[in-house]
Specification:
The structure holds three protein chains of three kinds. Chain A has helices at residues 2-20, 40-60, 67-77, 92-96, and one strand at residues 33-35. Chain A is mostly helical. The radius of gyration of chain A is 35 Å and the shape is elongated. The relative contact order of chain B is 0.11. Chain B is built from eight helices and one strand. Chain B is globular, with a radius of gyration of 17 Å. Chain B is an all-alpha fold. Chain B is 68% helix and 2% strand. In chain B, helix 5 packs across helix 8 (146-168). Chain B folds into two domains: 1-99, RNA polymerase sigma factor, region 2, helix turn helix motif (Rna Polymerase Sigma Factor, Chain: A, Orthogonal Bundle); 103-170, Winged helix-like DNA-binding domain superfamily/Winged helix DNA-binding domain (Arc Repressor Mutant, subunit A, Orthogonal Bundle), CATH 1.10.10. Chain C is mainly α. Chain C has one domain (34-140). The chains are: A mainly alpha, B mainly alpha, C mainly alpha. Chains in contact: A-B, A-C, B-C. The interface between A and C is large, with 31 and 40 residues. Strand 1 (33-35) of chain A pairs antiparallel with strand 1 of chain B, so a sheet runs across the interface.
C-alpha cells in the first residue's frame, strides 16, 4: 500500500508543475449575463423535459454488484486477526495431521 | 476576515484553486476559468461565507467543486445559446486550441489513468496526491464521511495503479 | 516392538481427541452454517431473483461494512506496529504488551462485529425461498 504512494506523489508533482504554467493571473471580473426574455418559456419546457428524462433513467437503472463489492466481501471473509496466533498451541500441526504408519515389512531389522 | 484580507487569501490560493477547478472541469481550461470566476464572485459577494470551521483551502475547494457541478448542469443551456452574454456574444462552440492544455506524454498517461477512475475516487486521489490534502480534508471537500473517503482512496489507488501498469505496457 | 512404531501408536489417540480445532467445514461450523456468504448471494443474484430493492440494500450494507473495516484496519495497524516493537525488546514489558493487546483485540472485535452485522443484515433482506435456494447451492458445492 505504502509503496505506490511515493510513485503517485512523484507523478502528480510532475503534473502540478506542468499545469502551474497555465494558471491565469488572479483577477475578479464580473461578467454580466442576461437571460434572453423571449426564450424563457422554451427554457422552462426544456428543463421540465430534462427532469423527466433524468427521473426515468434513474428508475430504470439496475443496481449491480461491482468487482469492488465482491473484493470487499472477500477481503473481510479472508481477514485473519493479528492475535490469531494465540489460539494455536505449539506443535498443534502434529495433532492436526494423521500420522503415517510405516509398512512393517519394509522396515530394516523388522520389529 | 474583511474583504481585503479575503481577497488576499484567495490570491495566494489562486494557483491551487485553478488546478482544482481544472480537475473539476475535466481539464477544460475555459470552463475552469469561468468556474473560478463564479466562485470568487460568490465568495466576495457574500453568497458563500467562510465560517472558520475548516481550513480556508478546504472550504474554498468545496465551493469550487459545487460551482463546477452547477456549471456542468447548465452547460447545455449555454450550448443551446439560451444564455446571452452582454454585448451579444454567444457561448463557445467548443474547445479552442488555446483552451487545451499541453502535457508531456508521461503526465498525459497519468491523466488517462485519472480519467479511468470513478468520479469520487478521482476527486480523493487528486486532493491527496495533487493538492497534498489528508484523506480527512478530502472528505470535507467532497462532503462524505472519513470512512467513505478512505474507501474511495483505496479503490482509487488500486484502479490508478492498474491503469498506469497498462500504460506502462504500451 | 520397534520404539518408533510404539511411539506413533501411543500418540495416535491424542490426534483423535485433540483440543485444537481445525478450520471449520461448512457443516461443522456451529454459527457460520446459519449465515449466507455475501459472495454467494451476489453470484446467484439472478438465479434467486434478487429484487432491485434487495440489491440496493445489500450493496449499501457492503459499502458501509467496507468503510468500517478499513477504518478499523487503519487504526489497528498503528497499534500492531507498536506491538511488534515491544515484542522485540529484551526483556518484554508485560504490562505495556497486555495494554496494547487489549486495544488490538478491541479492534479485532469491532471487525468481527461489523462482519457479523453484514451477514445478518444480508440474510434478513432475503426471503425464505431465496435462503433455501442459496443453501441448496452451498450444499451442492
Amino acid at each position: 500500500m505504502i509503496d505506490d504512494e511515493g510513485e503517485f506523489r512523484a507523478r502528480f508533482e510532475e503534473l502540478r508543475e506542468e499545469e502551474s504554467r497555465f494558471a491565469p493571473r488572479f483577477c475578479v471580473a464580473r461578467p454580466r449575463r442576461r437571460l434572453a426574455p423571449r426564450r424563457l418559456a422554451a427554457v422552462a419546457a426544456a428543463l421540465i423535459l430534462l427532469v423527466l428524462v433524468v427521473v426515468i433513467s434513474v428508475r430504470s437503472r439496475r443496481t449491480t454488484f461491482s468487482a469492488s463489492d465482491r473484493a470487499a466481501v472477500r477481503s473481510i471473509a479472508a481477514w485473519h486477526p493479528p492475535t490469531e496466533f494465540l489460539l494455536r498451541t505449539p506443535g498443534s500441526e502434529i495433532l492436526l495431521t494423521t500420522p503415517v504408519i510405516p509398512d512393517v515389512h519394509s522396515m530394516k531389522g523388522g520389529l | 476576515m474583511n474583504r481585503a484580507e479575503l481577497e488576499q487569501q484567495l490570491e495566494e490560493l489562486h494557483p491551487a484553486s485553478f488546478a482544482w477547478a481544472l480537475g473539476c472541469c475535466g481539464r477544460d481550461r475555459g470552463n475552469a476559468e469561468e468556474v473560478l470566476q463564479e466562485t470568487y464572485l460568490k465568495i466576495l459577494d457574500g453568497k458563500a461565507r467562510f465560517d472558520g470551521r475548516s481550513a480556508l483551502k478546504t472550504w474554498l475547494f468545496a465551493v469550487i467543486r459545487r460551482t463546477a457541478a452547477a456549471h456542468r448542469r447548465f452547460g447545455w443551456l449555454r450550448a443551446l445559446r439560451f444564455v446571452a452574454h452582454d454585448g451579444g456574444d454567444v457561448a463557445d462552440d467548443g474547445e479552442s486550441a488555446e483552451q487545451r492544455l499541453v502535457h508531456s506524454e508521461r503526465t498525459a498517461a497519468l491523466l488517462r489513468g485519472i480519467r479511468s477512475l470513478a468520479p469520487r475516487q478521482r476527486e480523493v486521489i487528486e486532493l491527496v496526491f495533487y493538492h497534498d490534502m489528508t484523506i480527512e480534508q478530502s472528505a470535507e471537500v467532497i462532503g462524505v464521511s472519513l470512512g467513505t473517503a478512505r474507501v474511495h482512496y483505496q479503490r482509487g489507488k488500486e484502479r490508478l495503479r492498474a491503469a498506469l501498469l497498462r500504460e506502462g505496457s504500451r | 516392538m520397534k520404539a518408533s512404531l510404539l511411539l506413533i501408536l501411543l500418540l495416535s489417540p491424542f490426534a483423535l481427541f485433540a483440543q485444537q480445532p481445525a478450520p471449520p467445514q461448512p457443516d461443522n461450523d456451529p454459527m457460520g452454517r446459519y449465515l449466507i456468504p455475501p459472495e454467494l448471494v451476489m453470484s446467484q443474484s439472478e438465479q434467486i431473483g434478487l429484487t432491485e430493492k434487495q440489491r440496493a440494500t445489500i450493496k449499501a450494507e457492503v459499502q458501509k461494512m467496507q468503510a468500517k473495516f478499513l477504518d478499523a484496519q487503519w487504526d489497528m495497524q498503528e497499534q500492531t506496529s507498536k506491538m511488534t516493537q515491544l515484542l522485540q525488546q529484551t526483556p518484554i514489558d508485560e504490562a505495556k504488551v497486555l495494554e496494547l493487546a487489549d486495544k488490538i483485540m478491541s479492534y479485532e472485535r469491532d471487525i468481527k462485529r461489523v462482519h457479523l452485522a453484514l451477514l445478518v443484515r444480508i440474510k434478513n433482506s432475503l426471503t425464505a425461498e431465496q435462503i433455501a435456494r442459496l443453501e441448496a447451492v452451498r450444499r451442492g458445492k
